[in-house]
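Dear colleagues,

As part of the handover before I leave the project, I'm documenting each prediction I ran so the next person doesn't have to rerun anything. This entry is a single chain, and its sequence is reproduced below.
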Amino acid sequence: MMMRRVLPLIPALLLAACAVGPDYQTPAAPPKEALAPPPKLPDQSLLAGRDIPADWWTLFKSPALDGLVREAMAHNADVAAAQAALRVARENAYANAGSFFPSVTASFQATRQKDPTGTVAPTAANNAPQLNLFTPQLSVSYSPDLWGGTRRGQEALDATTEGQRFQVEATYLTLTSNVVVAAVTEASLRGQIAATRSIIADAGKALAILRRQRDLGQVSAADVAGGEAALAQAEQGLSPLEKQLEQQRHQLNALLGRMPADPTPETFQLSGLTLPVDLPYSLSARLVEQRPDIRLAAANLHVASATVGVAVANRLPNLTLSGATGSSASALNSLFATGNGFWNFGASLTQPVFDGFSLAHKEKAARAALDQAAAQYRSTVVLAFQNVADTLSALKNDGDALAAAQRADAAAAHSLALARRQLELGAVAPATMLAAQQGAAQARMALVQAQAARLMDTAALFQALGGGWWNLPPAEAGGGAGHAMAPGGA
């Protein structure tokens, strides 16, 4: 009967309640002018509004790279940790949602007691000093969310879950980008090692010519010593590159969740990686919806906004409704006999009067945290747009640098070939040959590095634009990564 009287009051109390504190407003999108017009790229096209595929790394057309990225997503420990953190946030939000419902507890107490008959009368109905007492009881308590503090707390937890979802996406994006860059770096190192070995071979041939000419009296011993020094210098450059390659392989294994000693059958060469030609270019409003770090900063701003409401509600009166019903009897078979039942219903209203101004300062701290989160959001947006602008500038310069490196390499190779023929004929000084060797070496290394830089910065553009996580098929949106969400979705 008591429950039938109380339950109809709950919806009315909720409808009458209000939510104190600021209502969260999605930050305004940056103006269209936030990003400068895209530059013209050599051999690549920037297509405004072009969407980004979820598996953007497949545009490099390397089956080995595709396999490594998927292996990394399945076995990388950072991804697993981010997914677990998302589950923690989600379950905390579910747990807090129970605050919107009444709390119902059931209890059963069994005691045996003896009354002090010399002091008080026996409590048993038959005046016996010793008795058994069995008491089953159902208790209900409920705190109507009069000021919306509970709802603001739930809003903060839901926003925390939202933020952790985008932390997962950021972890995926960082991981896939790192795997692609690691593969390109390996290919670059292999190219530099191949170039160094070619340089060593050229230096060895030149030294053989100098030694033969010395035996014929055409050059001096000093010229031969210069050739030996050039060969040694070329050989000296090989070991650091091989060390870097080994370390790069270790790093790639770590990204894949492997141990350094695990076999790594996949190898990468620059010739096995295709430069994507058609590149996406997102508008300003779209960019803030795509970047996981911006979405995470927006979620943190939402948390801070809701926390202000919680702090305000904590300073206002709190109403608690409670009631209990049960039965008490000296024998189990008479628990539900007439006259053994009981019930009670009550309401309490509490209002903080003086707490040393703690709650007031906590509200001020929450408002300061909101200002902090707003500033951090603005900073994240500025850095994100800077990241995109820097990447576009890098791609423009990469194209120019690669074209210059190709011309320099061709010219240096031609100069070296001419110097070698003239040296064989004795028509050029050995110093000229050594200079041609050094020029060819520098040009070859610069060409390899320019090719790698263009591939890396292309991958960096996909990362800077958000990585296409919103285009992942729903069937692959497992692990709590939130891939099924589209930009702009709640």
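Strands lie at 45-48, 103-114, 130-142, 278-281, 318-327, 341-350. The first strand starts at residue 45 and ends at 48.

All the best with the project,
I.
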